[in-house]
Specification:
Strand 8, helix 10 and strand 9 form a beta-alpha-beta unit. This protein has 14 helices and twelve strands. By secondary structure, it is of the alpha/beta class. Helix 2 runs parallel beside helix 4, helix 9 runs parallel beside helix 10 and helix 9 crosses helix 13.
Length: 394
């Protein structure tokens, strides 16, 4: 089967998913086109022009199936390359543009087009695809609800519920995690010798601090303000802990990270991006708690990696997290009352670190469990695409 795979914002989990998909189904004939994950506003609207300039030959060929992320301006691309319109198409939603938190500080008001355009790209891509796959039910529902709410704002000639056109051709299929990267289940906890782990976490052999890892993009939507408040609550209670801060940084780093570094002080054992993938995995393997403070998360690949590596998750009870782990690993969500939220988070950190709680089973998010579902989606869409959208004009 000849597959054209399009990833228009190929960073983070998008790249992780793309590489895993191609590697898992190496028997297919893949043509992969990607664009760097930067300059978001231009990228999401300009990707057809970028590919027109650089990849016209590949886009003019015939394919048995197209798989495009929701960042791809799919309807425009099919208009520029009419041959693509005949190919069955899957649109994969890592995220949607309707469920992002607002910036925490006052920002200049963007022009209306910059707010509307990314959302309309998502909607048009969904309309022009034969199958819609979402990495979580949270992602699917916020997209369908958000699309309805946006279309209601049209001044006239609007459908009552655009979600009714899209829901029937949608399904949830998570990003699959490569389980083998974390070793056998019996080896996932403290895979390094104890002395190496103690050295890594900067503690003496007779010390037993709570080893906490936080791994996310260093941006406002990952909750740095919430993280700072949790650090303050840990300090207030005089909890013995070590904190490993991992994640990608960008030109503008939220100021809360400087405050976290100052207030946690010597308790911080890692501050910034790991030098290598193996270094990142080693931090996960030797940690006890994987902490998230996210305000925006459509699945949670880093959480799944942490749990597979042997961490106990401590996650806010919001977003997609209830789909990943049982409720006893979730702390109460109070985004508008972060001091109250921090108390519940620290309560959970202390409780999980002080008891023999089993690490939750997240094996259903690994390739051995998801391979069959992915294969069925790819092959059934290629063979039996639904080539029309049933529209009730009444």
């Amino acid at each position: 089967m000849r597959i054209l795979l399009l990833s228009a914002y190929d960073g983070g989990s998008h790249s992780y998913w793309r590489k895993g998909l191609v590697a898992q189904f190496s028997e297919y004939q893949w043509t992969v086109l990607t664009l760097p994950g930067r300059h978001f506003s231009w990228r999401i609207r300009g990707n057809p022009i970028s590919w027109l300039m650089t990849e016209s030959e590949k886009l003019s060929k015939n394919y048995d199936l197209i798989i495009a992320t929701s960042m791809v301006d799919l309807s425009t691309l099919k208009g520029i390359f009419p041959g693509l319109a005949a190919a069955p198409t899957i649109c994969y939603f890592h995220e949607n543009q309707f469920a992002y938190p607002n910036q925490p500080q006052p920002q200049p008001q963007p022009q209306r087009g910059t707010v509307l355009e990314p959302k309309m790209v998502n909607i048009y891509a969904a309309l022009s695809a034969d199958r819609l796959l979402f990495n979580s039910e949270f992602n699917r529902q916020t997209f369908l609800t958000g699309a309805d709410q946006l279309i209601k704002r049209m001044p006239d000639l609007r459908p009552p519920r655009i979600s009714e056109w899209l829901e029937d051709k949608s399904a949830v299929l998570p990003v699959a995690v490569e389980e083998s990267a974390y070793g056998d289940s019996d080896q996932r906890r403290n895979s390094s010798p104890i002395s190496d782990s103690d050295h890594r976490w900067q503690c003496e052999p007779n010390e037993s601090p709570i080893k906490i890892v936080w791994a996310a993009r260093w941006e406002h939507d990952k909750g740095p303000d919430q993280l700072l408040t949790i650090v303050r609550e840990l300090n207030r209670r005089d909890v013995d802990y070590r904190l490993c801060l991992l994640g990608e940084t960008f030109r503008k780093v939220p100021e809360e990270f400087d405050a976290i570094r100052e207030e946690a002080g010597v308790r911080i054992v890692q501050y910034g991006y790991a030098e290598s993938r193996e270094e990142y995995l080693e931090w996960l393997r030797t940690a006890e708690i994987f902490l998230s403070t996210a305000l925006h998360e459509f699945q949670g690949v880093s959480v799944l990696e942490g749990v597979l590596a042997g961490c106990k998750p401590v996650l806010p009870d919001r977003l997609s997290y209830s789909e990943l782990v049982p409720a006893n690993y979730l702390y109460a969500s109070h985004p508008s009352a972060i001091e109250e939220e921090a108390v519940t988070a620290v309560d959970l950190i202390i409780r999980l670190s002080g008891e023999e709680t089993e690490i939750p089973d997240v094996s259903r998010f690994t390739w051995p469990f998801l391979e069959k579902s992915y294969r069925e989606e790819l092959e059934s869409t290629a063979m039996f695409p639904e080539r029309s959208v049933a529209i009730d004009k009444n």
